[in-house]
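hey m, so remember when u said the tokens were messed up on ur end? i reran from scratch. heres the input so u can diff it against urs
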Amino acid sequence: MSKAKKRTGLEKKQIGFFEKYLSIWVAGCIGTGIAIGHFTGENMQAISNLEIYRVNIPVALLIWLMIYPMMLQIDFSSIKNVGKRPRGLLLTLVINWLIKPLT
């Protein structure tokens, strides 16, 4: 690392392998899911019937697995400062609760 970068604290972040090919990973997972559904046929009906309060348990678990890594990156110590600059939080609430449900 150069001395200028050390002094300013600026480093160029490298994008990881997984992030670099995220579109390919997503397309591959979609294709795999379609293939599994096609080749297992009626056996998938048993999995689709696993519900609690009309929430499909396998789907809920897979969504949780998808969100969990993002939750690990949250800086919980910064939450105490939300009241000082609430614009970002308010913008997120407006978009998620007023705009997205209508679009």
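this time it looks ok to me. Helices lie at 3-8, 17-20, 22-40, 43-48, 57-72, 87-99. if urs says something different then somethings off w ur setup not the seq
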